[in-house]
Amino acid sequence: MQNALSDNRIILLTSSLSYRARAFLEAARRLGLEVVQGLDMPPPLADYWQPTLPVDFKEPPRAAQDIFNFAAQKPVRAVIPVDDGATVIAALASELLDLSHNSSEAAYAARNKHRMRELLSAAGVPSPRFRPFQVGDDPATIAAEVNYPCVVKPLMLSASQGVIRANNPAEFEQAFRRTAGIVKASGGESDESHDCTHVLVEDFIPGFEVALEGILTEGRLKTLALFDKPDPLDGPFFEETIYVTPSRLPPPVQEAIFHCTAQACRALGLREGPVHAELRVNEQGPWVVEVAGRSIGGLCSNILRFGTSMSLEELILRQAVGMEIESLNREERAGGVMMIPIPGAGLLKCVEGLEQAQAVPGIEEIEITAKLDNRIMPLPEGSSYLGFIFARGETPQVVEAALREAHRHLRFTIVPEIYLARR
Ligand code: ADP
User: Which range (39-53, 75-89, 143-157) has the least confidence?
Assistant: First the structure.
């Protein structure tokens, strides 16, 4: 049980790779919450760095125990994961601390794509046929056993990293080897937070894609925003680009998407906090690609405002600590974000056209997150973007057009890997 001293303190689990810590820290400051950052750090680095609360994301049970030990001295109201990598740890720690949160089983199911498929399929939630394989399996043998087109994917990575479509056995062999390589490179043998030994193969779901941002309270789902993804996502790699809300889909389709997501949350056991669901929709209705027990990734949440001007992060923190939420309704105006894809591997040397892009009517902000003179890597090996373009406007059409026009003005000079290798 927590006492009055804990009223203002929360633990925010972040890593140095997170895009999202800043928005959560700002929201906490606005709400007068004291934040202790649980920073992902292996013990040797933590000894050297000495952050207030070092947490090793690769060892969830030990990480949860470290959080518990800290909170035993300094009580906290909530343990908030900023990204996918900490959702299971936050759930385990919350169980130890008796804080209301998703169960660790549900958090794990929302994190591990194989477990997720098992639970969705058992509950009859529309979701593709799937089969796990070992990274060391012979792709030539498996190629004869799977359906086409199919999608090969890692179990526990995110941002579409390592997700590849294959239309026939020859493509499958290549895709499998590539995804298996990405999975093996993603973690060491002792890494408990990753499954570095398996790859999932699923039937390809045709259709267009949407993302539902929602929040769960005692198992009840409320949609915060439904995003259309106007660019087709048909592979071979699945690069996210434009998200626009409100959705232009007819209300009955939107309702079907909501019900499918709510069914999926129940199947996984998710009951509290943010959910970010990706679904594909075709003539048979919505299909669940995935449901994550966290909020939208990257800097995309910048485009969401609720009630008078509440950010998504403020809403999540308010819910987590039980503060009043004035409104869960998104503002009236349409909003959109473009995740700027990385066109090729290499060294980012120069970004031009920012001023012209920023001057496009409706564009609110452009944030280039890739660093100059740093190596960048496209999908499927990479998992980041060049940056984000944000727009608001009267209608989703206007917002989408503004994002596309701003992107046309941007020019990125990338010195290709092949040239770097020769130097
Ligand atoms: P991640 O968690 O890395 O984003 P997902 O499983 O959500 O991985 O897949 C990333 C993207 O790949 C999806 O948004 C979708 O566009 C595409 N995708 C994944 N699985 C399928 C599938 N079975 N059928 C069609 N597209 C898929």
Answer: 39-53
Instruction: Look up the pTM and report it.
Output: 0.95
* CB count in 10 Å sphere of residue 220: 11
- Residue 370 φ/ψ, nearest 5 degrees: -70, 140
CB 349 within 8 A of CB 415: yes
Q: What is the greatest pairwise CA distance in the chain? A: 63
Q: What is the pLDDT of residues 204-260, one digit of tens each?
A: 999 999 999 999 999 999 999 999 999 999 999 999 999 999 999 999 999 999 999
> Nearest Cα to 391, choosing from 415, 367, 410?
367
User: How far is ligand 1, taken at its centre, from the CA of residue 66, in Å?
Assistant: 34
User: 360: left (phi > 0), else alpha (psi -120 to 50), else beta?
Assistant: beta
Ligand 1 mutation target, pool 148, 153, 242, 379, most atoms within 8 A of CB: 153
Spatial distance between the Cα atoms of 261 and 102, rounded to a whole number of angstroms: 16
CA angle 325/328/332 to nearest 5° reads 130
d(CA 174, CA 180): 10
Tell me the two tokens of residue 370: 């890739």
Sorted by sequence, the CB contacts under 8 Å of residue 334 that are 6+ apart come out as: 244, 245, 246, 392, 393, 394, 395, 396, 398, 399
- Taking a C-beta distance cutoff of 8 angstroms, is the pair 292, 276 a contact? yes
Sign of CA dihedral 275, 280, 284, 288: negative
Q: Which protein residue's CA is at the shortest distance from atom 14 of ligand 1?
A: 278
Cα 273 to Cα 294: distance, rounded to the nearest angstrom: 7
State in Å: Cα 231 to ligand 1 middle: 14
